[in-house]
Amino acid sequence: LEDLQDAFDFCYKVHYLPGEDRSRDSQYTQQLQALQAKLQNLDRQRREVLAQMQQLLGRSETLQDFLVQEVGAWRDRQRCSCLGAPADTRLRPLETWFTELGQGLFQLLKLLRALEDLRQKVTYERDPLKAEIPLLEQRLRELLTYLLKSAFVVEQQPSMPNTCKRPLVLRTASKFSARARLLVRLHDRNHHMETKIYIDKNPPKIKGFRKFNILTSSSKTLLAGDTPQDGLVCDFQYLTLKEQKDSRSGKGSKGAGEGPLVVTEELHLITFTLAYAYCGLELELETSTLPFVIISNNNQLSSAWASILWFNMLSGNPEDQQFFSKPPPAPWLRLAEVLSWQFESMAEQGLSQDHLLMLAKKLFG
């Protein structure tokens, strides 16, 4: 395109003489006809390039929809894995696919900008670049925004180091860790990409719902490994929680009748935000952990873990923090599967049908 445009531009400046009547000059007429042919060829090539870009964007949308489904399936596997299920939660294949698509889309963005530079140098009446480039760029930016927002995931759910078999139960004043990952391994090394974490960024409107502060640093720079294969990781370790004291209650603890939920049925969320920038595109990405329970002593651990089991067994919506205000009943087949996972995670062997039948008789008579 650039070569065609340069050739047309040169001929236009050398041969075209506006304002002069040279209709009887056969040589000039031939030059004008050649110039017109060059313009038609340039216009045709521009339209072909735009059509190819439209086709590539359509394919990218199809691929992106597939990747978003794959991330959803991965989240389901991760949730089951937290309950002890033997699930594959590796992120490397997804990371490879997301990065490849991201590279392709950012390459199209660079090509669009190169086309706009060409249009600035040479344009004409009914120039297809003038109308199409803004629409294509808007569509491309929407695709990239959706891709990047889908690619920011919680790789490691909040967990304390000594209860690796029971994540999502945290104790005040005890250290825990959580990690998020951006599956698109593309970033501007000159740009400071900061990650922040919040607990209960949008708390549920429940009377008596406890509030907590995250002690230690709640912001970090996104870490990029020494090689591109290491990925882009926000790793928060040695975090601790402290309950905000309520001056009205005196001790800050939940009093009798203060709220509808007991401590071990109160669900909390940690939200990661990331200030992302690459190739002139700046976004704030956000992702949240699965809901977790915060206890103050080990006596509450079993009840808290029961809440985590019940929630993750029956709800796929992390925002459903009021789940226990009206918890649904669990179908026996679903409960039996989760109980088998629990045994398998602790004893390396699940429950047989005879075992489950015995439990069912004890539960249901």
TrEMBL record:
Keyword flag RNA-binding: no
Keywords from the UniProt entry: Coiled coil, Cytoplasm, DNA-binding, Nucleus, Phosphoprotein, SH2 domain, Transcription, Transcription regulation
Signal transducer and activator of transcription linker domain mapped to chain residues: 322-365
A GO molecular-function annotation: DNA binding
One BP term from GO: signal transduction
Coiled-coil residue spans: 25-59
Pfam families given in the database record: STAT_alpha, STAT_bind, STAT_linker
Signal peptide feature range: none
SUPFAM superfamilies named among the record's database cross-references: p53-like transcription factors, STAT
Annotated localization: Cytoplasm; Nucleus
Name recorded for this polypeptide: STAT2 protein
Organism the protein comes from: Galbula dea
